[in-house]
Design a protein that fits this description.
Distance between the termini: 61 Å
Shape: globular
Helix content: over 70%
C-alpha cells in the first residue's frame, strides 16, 4: 500500500465524505485503516491495524471518526466483550462523550451511535443506522463494510446482499476500494442461492484485482455449496499465491480448501491443511474467525469418524479465555466444540451456565435474547451428542433446523449443525429418528447433488438401519 495515495482532508471533502478533523495525517491514517479492513490485509509497513489505530489516535486524539473506526474494528472482531473488558468499555464511553461534545456532520453522528449500539449487543439497530448513512452517502465504505459484517453476524442473508446491491450503482471503477464491492456483493448473492450470478460477480472483481481474498472466498463458497470439490481444489490452488497475501483472511480460505478434502473423504490431507495453515495461523493471530474455523474443522472430521488426537487440547488454550465472552452465539457454539473435544467438563459447564444466566436477563443484547430459545438448546444438543444421547440431541435440534441461520455465519459454516442433526438422528435407537435421518439425507442430496459426503452418510444410514 502506498501511503502517498491515502486521502487527506481535502480529498475526503471532495468525495462528499468530509471528516471532522483539521489533521491531514489523521485523515490519511483513517484511510489506511479502512483500506486494511476492506482488503483483509494487516500491512506491517503501516504498522498493521493496531499500529494504525495508535497512530491515528495520536494524530488527533479528539477525531470522532478515528475513534469510530478504531473501536468499531475491535468490536466487529468479536474477540472481546464490553461486559468483561473495562478498557474497551471505556473506549466506547469516550467515543460517546466526544460525539456528544463536538460539532459533527449527521453521518459521523450516526456512525458513532451505531458503534455504541453494536457494543451493547444491539446489532439489528446498529445495522439500521449504517443503512441510514448509506441512503445519503452510498460511497461511505466504512458504513458498507460495517453493515456487511453486521448482517453476516445476524445471518440476515437478504440484507447482506441488498445492502451492497443498492449502493453499487453509485460507485465507479476509479474510486478507491471499488473492486472489493464485487466480492461483497457476490457473497450476498451466494448466501441467497444465486450461485451463477455470485460466481460471475466475484470473477469480475478478480479481473479488477487478483489479490481480492474476499472475492476468492466467494468463489470458494459457490464450489462448496454445489459440492464441486475438484473444481474448488483446483481454483484455490491456482489462486493461492494471490489470496494468501490477505493475512486476515488466509486461514479462512485454507479452511475452505480443507473442506473440499473432507467432502472427498481425503481426511489426512484435510488434517494436513489444519496443521500447516489453519491452527498455525489461528494461534498466531488470535482472530476469532481463524479460531472458529479451527474448531469447526476438527468437529466435522470427528463426525466423519476421524481421530484428531490431541489437537483439541492445543486449541482449548486459544478458546478457553473466551468462555464467558458471549458476544455471538456462533462463537459460543464453536468454543463448546473445543471444551467437549478436550473433555474439559469445567469449561463446558461454565460456558453453558453463564450463557443461561444471560439468556434469563438479556437486557438489550440481541444475542442474549436469542440464547434462551436457540443458543442454549443448540449447546445442550452438542453436549447430549457428546455423551452418546443421540435421541436427545435429535429432539433438541430438529425444531430449530430452520432457525440455524439466526446464529449468524454462512450456509457453509452452519452446515456443520445440519450434519450434526443427521448424525444424531442416524445414530439414535428410535425408529422415528432413523426415518428422520433418511428424509434429511434425501433433502440434502436434492439440494446438493453429487456430494460424496452425502453419499457416504446415506450408505452409513443404510448400514446402521439394515
Amino acid at each position: 500500500m502506498n501511503p502517498a495515495s491515502f486521502r487527506d482532508c481535502k480529498a475526503w471533502q471532495k468525495e462528499g465524505l468530509p471528516l471532522s478533523t483539521s489533521s491531514n495525517e489523521a485523515c490519511k491514517l483513517y484511510d489506511a485503516l479502512l483500506t486494511q479492513y476492506v482488503t483483509w490485509r494487516s500491512d506491517e509497513t503501516l504498522g498493521g491495524v493496531e499500529g494504525c489505530i495508535s497512530a491515528l489516535r495520536a494524530a488527533d486524539p479528539n477525531f470522532v471518526m478515528g475513534h469510530v473506526i478504531g473501536t468499531g474494528l475491535e468490536l466487529v472482531g468479536t474477540g472481546s466483550s464490553v461486559r468483561l473488558n473495562g478498557r474497551l468499555a471505556g473506549d466506547v464511553a469516550r467515543l460517546a462523550e466526544l460525539a456528544a461534545g463536538r460539532d459533527l456532520a449527521p453521518r459521523e453522528r450516526l456512525h458513532a451511535r451505531a458503534v455504541e449500539l453494536f457494543a451493547k449487543g444491539c446489532l439489528p439497530e446498529a445495522c439500521e443506522l449504517w443503512d441510514e448513512i448509506l441512503l445519503e452517502h452510498p460511497t461511505d465504505m466504512l458504513a458498507v463494510k460495517f453493515a456487511h459484517d453486521g448482517y453476516f453476524y445476524l445471518g440476515r442473508q437478504a440484507q447482506l446482499r441488498d445492502s451492497v446491491a443498492r449502493v453499487l450503482p453509485h460507485w465507479t471503477p476509479q474510486m478507491p476500494l471499488y473492486s472489493y464491492l464485487k466480492g461483497m456483493y457476490s457473497f450476498g448473492l451466494l448466501e441467497t442461492h444465486f450461485y451463477d450470478q455470485a460466481e460471475k460477480t466475484a470473477k469480475e472483481g478478480l479481473e479488477l484485482n487478483r489479490e481480492d481474498g474476499w472475492a476468492v472466498h466467494a468463489v470458494a463458497h459457490v464450489h462448496e455449496m454445489r459440492a464441486e470439490a475438484d473444481q474448488g481444489l483446483h481454483f484455490m490452488e491456482s489462486r493461492e499465491r494471490d489470496w494468501k497475501v490477505c493475512d486476515m483472511l488466509a486461514s479462512h480460505n485454507y479452511w475452505h480448501w480443507a473442506l473440499y478434502f473432507t467432502e472427498k473423504g481425503r481426511y489426512e490431507e484435510a488434517l494436513g491443511v489444519y496443521d500447516d495453515e489453519v491452527v498455525r495461523r489461528c494461534k498466531a493471530s488470535g482472530s476469532l474467525l481463524d479460531t472458529v474455523d479451527a474448531c469447526s474443522l476438527l468437529y466435522r472430521l470427528e463426525m466423519e469418524g476421524v481421530n484428531v488426537k490431541d489437537r483439541w487440547r492445543e486449541l482449548l488454550q486459544v478458546t478457553k479465555p473466551h468462555t464467558e465472552d458471549h458476544v455471538l452465539l456462533f462463537n459460543d457454539l464453536h468454543f463448546l466444540m473445543t471444551s467437549l473435544g478436550a473433555k474439559d467438563e469445567g469449561t463446558t459447564h461454565r460456558l453453558l451456565e453463564t450463557l443461561q444466566e444471560l439468556a434469563e436477563a438479556p437486557g438489550e443484547n440481541f444475542q442474549h435474547k436469542l440464547a434462551g430459545g436457540l443458543g442454549v438448546p443448540m449447546c445442550q444438543a452438542m453436549v447430549a451428542y457428546d455423551r452418546g444421547d443421540f435421541g436427545a440431541a435429535a429432539d433438541l435440534l430438529r425444531p430449530l433446523r430452520y432457525r440455524f441461520a439466526e446464529i449468524g455465519g454462512s450456509d457453509a459454516q452452519r452446515d456443520l449443525f445440519h450434519q450434526l442433526l443427521v448424525h444424531s438422528a442416524m445414530k439414535s435407537d428410535k425408529k422415528q429418528h432413523q426415518k428422520l435421518a433418511r428424509c434429511l439425507l434425501v433433502e440434502r442430496d436434492a439440494a446438493r447433488p453429487n456430494s460424496p459426503l452425502t453419499h457416504r452418510l446415506i450408505q452409513r444410514a443404510r448400514a446402521l438401519h439394515a
